[in-house]
Amino acid sequence: MRLVLFLMWLLHWLPLSVLGRIGAGVGRLLFMLIRSRRHITLTNLRLCLPHLSEVEREKIAKQHFEMYARSVLERGILWWGSEARLKRLIQVDPKVPLEVIQSGPTILMCPHFVCLDVAGVAVMLESSLCSIYTEQRNKVFDRALRQGRSRFRPVKLFSRAEGVKPIIRAMTKEGLPYFMLPDMDFGVKNAEFIPFFGIPAATLTAMPRLAASTGARIVPVIATMLPHYRGWKVTFHPPWENYPGDEDMTTATRRMNAFIEQEILKAPSEYFWAHKRFKTRPEGVPSVY
Looking at residues 193-219, what average pLDDT do you find? Predict the structure, then answer.
């Protein structure tokens, strides 16, 4: 892993147009070699985008592998690139919502697009934050990841095992926005089977519950790649009004999934399809994988 990190550090000096093309080439190779992840990706696309032909879905899958590999290599720029370079490459639309963050508890809801780390950097260039963190198995990579994500400002990272209390304290007592990634399958605990592109998916109901208990405002954040290797775009959507309001948690979580679906359709190859989004099935329902 030290060798991999050293290689990432060396490559980060390259122009993004060169580094991105290297990453895309690696992605094409991985699409051919990693059959298990290719199968997961194509299965997800078949379930979620049934209106497309098999050829169209395979094209998206290939592009997804290219963009995912790019995002890994381009992470070197996020970890070691200068602040000036990052500000030049990251297009923020319209701006980091500092006025919302400073007005009270805020949840920055960031779905799993491949370059979501760029969204975190865009925020940390202007504000500290808190988030949930899954410790990496490799200690060397874990340390590099933590340092890379907190090099501009202190970041409070909590483990999922700590529960929600430290997050609430950070949001309400310290004024830190909560950078939340709400759209992965973590099993049935604290989750409900909410439709995702019409397929029941184990989905955490934590976001509306947290918003209801703290009065937090939800600001969706979407990170995508700019065309022609020009950098990345981080879009901060307007805060959701009255969320969850009078809605029950199931309905509010469905609204979250519907928003994520809408954003995926704008850039389908950049969503993290290689994750087993439908790993947990309702009782008696066989695995889709």
Answer: 97
Is the distance from CB of 79 to CB of 146 less than 8 angstroms?
no
Residue count of the chain: 289
Q: State the angle between helix axes of 116-124 and 139-149 in degrees (0 to 180), rounded to the nearest 10.
A: 50
For the chain, the distance separating the N- and C-terminal CA atoms, rounded to the nearest angstrom, is 30
- Please report, for the chain, how many H helices and E strands are present, in that order: 11, 9
Tokens of 277: 């989004």
Helix (H) or strand (E) run with residue 217 in it: strand 217-225
Condensed to tens digits (0 to 9), the pLDDT of residues 112-137 reads: 999 999 999 999 999 999 999 888 88
d(CA 141, CA 88): 27
- C-alpha 261/C-alpha 169 separation (Å) is 31
User: Which tokens hold the place of 26?
Assistant: 């690696």
Residue range 190-201: mean pLDDT, rounded: 96
